Amino acid sequence: MEIKRGGVVSKLLENVDIPKMFRAKQIFPRPRILPEDILGVVFAELSQDKFSSQIKSGMNIAITAGSRGIANVDIITKAVVDFVKSRNAHPFIVPAMGSHGGATAEGQLELLAGYNITEETMGCQIRSCMDTVLLGHSELGKPVYLDKLAYESDGIIVSCRLKPHNAFRGPYESGPCKMMAIGLGKQAGAEVVHSDGMGKIGQNIPAAAKVILEKATILLAIPCIENAFDETCKIEAIHKDEILKREPELLKYAFENMPKLIVGEGDVLIVDEIGKNYSGTGVDPNITGTFSTDYASGGVKVQRTCMLDITECSHGNGLGTGLASAITKRLFDKLDPEKIYPNCLTSTVLKSAGIPIVVATDKEAIQLCIRTLNNVDKDNVRIIRIPNSLHIEHIMLSEAYYGDVIQGKYEGLHAEGVPEYMEFDSEGSLITAIE
């Protein structure tokens, strides 16, 4: 598909005015664990007798590592590895990411390497395969699968992040139960759990997790939770017998510490960069409002969203672009269907893999969103610009918000400059930095 600058589309957009923008800072509560303190926190948690007594000398212990861009994930994973070694056991890491990485063992290793999780940095083997073992059937009649290498270990430690999911709501969203049922289930298990759609996944996850807790050698879970600044704020070890009870309690804590776009609503959202390291759908819809299903809601309310680029570590997996109103040719040229479509075939959610309108430049993507707004005063367009959906302390807002912000209408939102026109280079690329 040829996307050219200077054609009919460019001519239709060239006179669309982009309003002045100003920099703003969002202030949120900030409980956190500093990176240099993570090792001590992990050791303190795992040194409790109910955990340490399970890890005996000579045992082969599988430690999970997922496909998300979790804050300090390499430090946390290495700390768990080091604790297992301190008990004279033999740790190894297993990728626990369902069908991600193109649903291949090699692709999953590649994803982990992008997060600095390699055999060299972790000091242990990483054993990656897509083979699974059928453990049995859940109370809902679904087959339950588990990574073969993890199953054959003497014990499994479920290391993961715990946070709200981007496509459904329930007591168990993204956390230990999902890591077991979908992550360790590999492609086969992930497909089963997703097979009834997002309307039933909230039931399928705990049902599968119960079977895994009963029939696999799960020892414990050690989820981390992040604050509104994408920083680690809580790490807690959970005994296998307490996971089903404790996870919903920690999910409430995770919701309380999520960031948000304080203005709440606008007309256009500009996302500078999407990526699998930010969310499974490129951006976290709990922030951007770009949900791929009807089974979750929240985030900012806008008419149009444009996405300008994608992170290198996404390896072309632009899942989530289908939720945008427009993307740039730069982003489009980086998309790899072989990395995107396995997720959709597994999850049965197709909307996020679609291709929206593709335009030649950053400027045209923004102009297209403005031009196609309905029932909006085009002289006072409310535009929100974010770098990505994880780092939204510093944002930009259009001049239409300025008066309300400086008058204190939005608690926790402060102007850091005055409205000025954003700059674009001769190729139409946005060069004004957010901070």
What can you tell me about this protein's structure?
The protein is an alpha/beta fold and 435 residues long. Helix 2 (38-46) packs across helix 4 (73-86) and helix 8 (176-183) packs across helix 10 (201-215). The strands form 3 sheets. The chain has an 8-stranded mixed β-sheet. Strands 2, 3, 4, 7, 8, 9 and 10 form a 7-stranded mixed β-sheet that branches. It folds into 2 domains: 8-28 and 260-415, no CATH class; 35-256, Rossmann fold (3-Layer(aba) Sandwich), CATH 3.40.50. It has helices at residues 8-13, 38-46, 49-52, 73-86, 105-114, 119-122, 148-151, 176-183, 186-194, 201-215, 243-256, 285-288, 329-333, 337-347, 362-371, 402-406; strands at residues 21-26, 60-65, 90-95, 125-126, 132-137, 143-147, 155-161, 218-226, 232-235, 238-239, 268-271, 304-307, 326-328, 357-359, 383-386, 394-398, 413-415. It contains 16 helices and 17 strands. Helices cover 30% and strands 18% of the residues.
Structural key phrases:
435 residues, eight-stranded mixed beta sheet, Rossmann fold, 17 strands, alpha/beta
